[in-house]
Write a structure and sequence with these properties.
Blueprint: H1 2-19, E1 28-32, H2 33-37, E2 46-53, H3 59-71, E3 76-82, E4 89-94, E5 97-106, H4 120-123, H5 128-146, H6 150-155
Parallel strand pairs: 2-5
Antiparallel strand pairs: 1-2, 3-4, 4-5
Length: 156
């Protein structure tokens, strides 16, 4: 699983080098859902979120560019992009790991913050699709703050 996430990270870093003046410092990959909660099972997918700066590019163009990059990666199979979904998603396998990739753009000054640290005030002016994509991480992290005994939660 970690190798699949590392391969995804390399793919989005190649996009950042080409589109953000050679720097991937303004991008982040976050996990959420069962993987982030630590309750995944061997066949479950990994939900991921790619965050990039809104000052440099738009969501639709970046979505298409990321799909093109992933299409060229030999380790990526079963690639299916759904840009018109309620929450746009790129579904793929990297090796034998299923990955769902969401995209969200936000102010570069906020990118270093974890999505769970973003208040409603931070996201109120973002594109609705970006807010919906960010909410997966925000909700997952909120669940982790509300669980009194995380190891017990993961075993239950």
């Amino acid at each position: 699983r970690e190798a699949a996430l590392a391969a995804l990270e390399r793919a989005v870093e190649s996009w950042a080098r080409a589109n953000l003046l050679g720097s991937s410092a303004l991008t982040r990959i976050y996990t959420f859902g069962s993987y982030r909660l630590g309750v995944q099972y061997p066949g479950s997918d990994i939900d991921t979120l790619f965050v990039f700066p809104l000052e440099h590019c738009d969501r639709l163009t970046t979505f298409a560019q990321i799909v093109r990059i992933l299409e060229k990666r030999p380790e990526v199979t079963h690639l299916n992009s759904i840009p018109d979904a309620h929450v746009p998603v790129i579904k793929m396998n990297i090796g034998d790991v299923q990955i769902d990739l969401l995209l969200a753009q936000m102010s570069s000054s906020l990118i270093g913050q974890a999505p769970s640290e973003l208040s409603d005030e931070h996201v109120k002016n973002l594109d609705l699709k970006c807010v919906l994509s960010l909410n997966g991480c925000r909700v997952t992290d909120k669940i982790l703050t509300l669980v009194p005994n995380i190891p017990h939660f993961r075993l239950a």
